[in-house]
Structure prediction request, 220 residues.
Amino acid sequence: MKNNNITMLLALLGFCLVSYAQDNGDYIEFNDRKNVVHGVYLGVSMHFGEMDNKDTFLPSFKVAYVANRKVEVGFVATFFYSQQNYFNETEGINEDIIGAYGGLHIEPIFFSKSTVNLSFPLLVGGGGLGVFDSDFDFENNDLEDDELRESDGFFVIEPGVNLLFNVSRYLQLEAGVKYRISSKTRLEPATLNRINGFSAGVGIKVGVFNMGRNRYKKKL
Prediction:
């Protein structure tokens, strides 16, 4: 009788195990530990905005680590060119503004398991800018120190909001808006004393957004 009870118990356990495996796509999961999904990518984007009510172009480059598809941590570098057309009476020329800034990139991500995600990127860093001859020929000349009439540095914080489109495990598109908040700068003859302003744009990220594998599942 005792042996029959043991046999029946083992048969019942086996039946439950097989049923569970079928309900989970023919996998047996040995524990319910949730693995962290890792990811890394390189990104490039183009934003258009304004500085002192003048058209400004802001291409950016980004490298970041993605933790569990919920937050990004990395580095962003942004270059900008602003068509200010300041008239320099001493030189008798019009001048524009050119510069760059970069720093720490942090981006919390919401609805990460959906095709479309919502995120809130934040850049904290610094950079520099200068005024130069707007008629300068980039194709035939090098932008040397004497072409930058004035230059200065600044601290910047840039929060934003993005929509992320998960095309595949290796490709993601983004579109969003950002707002720059900078410390004061001093440039002559520029009236611009901060690079504050909104910008909007699109970007592309290429990498591996899901390098994780469930090591605790075995296929039957």
Observations:
- The chain has a mean pLDDT of 79.
- The helical segments are 2-23.
